[in-house]
Amino acid sequence: MVMLLVYGSELGGLAPTAPSDLDPFLARIGIGAVGNVALAGTIRTELLNGFRELRCDRELCNGCRLCFEVCPQGVWEMDDAKRAVLARRDDCTACRACLVQCPTEAVSAPFVTAR
To answer: For every residue of the chain, which 3-state class applies, written as one string?
Structure first.
């Protein structure tokens, strides 16, 4: 029996502000969750390492302001048309709160294509 102690996991869709040192290792070996607890070695690590990019589809955004309200770093703003705008991308800690809370899935984190 092998037991792996995981430190720095995400609970309830929110994550600590600093990634765990184990995140890249866990992602590489394909461990994304233990039970119903999603580990921080998936989308979060890929966002922090630049493999994914946080985006908002303005066509899907219904102006509910949830991304703006749940973001602990205040990276979202609302424009004149009441749509979400990622105003401070560099302040994002990849906690994924906006991804989890967006009811229309306007907020996404697609993989960055090769340039």
So the answer is: CCCCCCCCCCECCECCCCCCCCHHHHHHCCCCEECCEECCCCHHHHHHCCCECCEECCCCCCCCCHHHHHCCCCCEEECCCCCEEECCHHHCCCCCHHHHHCCCCCEECCECCCC
The domains of the chain are located at: 23-108
Q: Output the pLDDT for position 11.
A: 42
> What is the Cα–Cα distance from 113 to 78, expressed in whole angstroms?
27
Give yes or no for a contact between 100 and 69, defined as CB atoms under 8 angstroms apart.
no
Q: Is it true that domain 23-108 has CATH number 3.30.70.3550?
A: no
Beta bridge partners of 78: 84
User: For residue 77, how many other CB atoms are within 10 A of its CB?
Assistant: 14
Mean pLDDT in runs of 10 for the chain (115 residues)? 49 45 61 57 73 90 92 92 91 87 91 74
